[in-house]
Amino acid sequence: MMVKEAALAQLRTALRGSVLTSGDVGYDAARQIFNAMIDCRPALVARCATAADIRACVGFAQAHGLVVSVRSGGHNVSGKAVVDGGLMIDLSLMKGCRIDPVHRTARAEPGLTLAEFDHNCQVFGLATTMGAVSPTGIAGLTLGGGFGWLCSKYGLTCDNLLSVDIVTADGRLRTASPLEHPDLFWAVCGGGGNVGIVTSFEYRLHEVGPVLGGSVVFPFAKAKDVLAFYDDFAPSCPDELSVNAALWTTADGVPAVGIGVAWCGALDLGERVLRPLQTFETPLADTIAPMRYVDRQRASDAFFPPGRRHYWKAGWQRRLAPAGIDVIVEFAARRPSPYTRLSLQQMHGAAARVPPSATAFVHRHDQWEVQMLSQWLEPADDEVNIGWARECYAALEPHLERAVYVNMLGGDETSRIREAYGANYERLAAIKTIYDPTNFFRSNQNVATTPRLN
Ligand SMILES: Cc1cc2nc3c(=O)[nH]c(=O)nc-3n(C[C@H](O)[C@H](O)[C@H](O)COP(=O)(O)OP(=O)(O)OC[C@H]3O[C@@H](n4cnc5c(N)ncnc54)[C@H](O)[C@@H]3O)c2cc1C
Predict the structure, then answer these.
(1) Which domain holds residue 130?
(2) Residue 26 has what pLDDT?
């Protein structure tokens, strides 16, 4: 290791948290993330407890020329949270959360999962947009944008961000908000961790729950009709409804197509809005019912257990034209793994109405995110499962926008990073150049610093 024992001892003394090296108890568990494909060996893992720990880690890495990676929930499939030979700044133990029920705000640390955050908020009947699988981390999700069951009504997660505390590459802890360092705040809202390490997030909350949630499931043979119906039905629905379609294999081994829903408004109105979905075709199952918001948030967790291997690809599609639907159904029919899903997650309503230049997250349209979520168990099956996702993407590409959600980018998709930011890329690069001129934060979906300012 490049770091001398004396320096390492100093780092250990400086932190409230701990530092692990290869061979230490807990090192292997700490470097393990959601995607079992990722097997990186950092030189050091700093298990931070406080913002001061994070500052100390940034200073230490700068002094010793170490590449840093930042791990919060560890759910990003690209695996950028962990880096070979570098310093992994592990925030997963930082789980502080304080709700202000009067002003309807939350102050949350980056180690919280969605489940933990939602639980804290729902004590007061409050929530804000988070993702649809509850062990995901709030930090990476928020920094990339964040969409889920509340986004049609309340916008993306980053649209509900009021401020952050952030350690920048110079080691300073700053507060960024629309009033303080507004450029930095703009870049935090969708910029994916390029401009610093967020030590706490302040969110706007809303009164939420109970919701009407569940799924209507149809035989796979009806997939084309169901997706055509979905494309007509969902974009015209009120903002209170968010939907997500999937083609997958049920726990009983039956291929199926389903439409998951969450309605966050008055329940009787929701029942009326959802009736066409429940009656246009004879379903195999219909689980739509009033439920606690946290139960809606957890309902898809079983499809994404820890320990599986993942290779994902995704892209945005404005409307589901019949030719595109044909490709989706053809590839769904020949998934090599029963755990693999094709999903069409909706962007609609409030999330779609924010001007594209208002935050670094640029893709503001009524549209679908088509997700090829390849997952399997054995390393011997890597080639066939990765091959399926790549072929599926290649066949769908003519039907997709040249645009991608940064949080769905794979580790091998550097060439698509510009597509993640579109017209906002240059502004994000310019802000990164101000706050991180040497590209110190580069184990991420990296936005290059602007060369002429270096
Ligand atoms: C099963 C599953 C379901 C998902 N569902 C949704 C969904 O419904 N909606 C949605 O929007 N997304 C969804 N995602 C994508 C998810 O938003 C991203 O994977 C996100 O990056 C996860 O955040 P994390 O903190 O768990 O990840 P990590 O892997 O810990 O972090 C990802 C990256 O974010 C950056 N980062 C993390 N924390 C910080 C920090 N504190 N400061 C600065 N940079 C940081 C780093 O670059 C890091 O490499 C899902 C992912 C999975 C695996």
Answers:
(1) 97-207+426-453
(2) 97
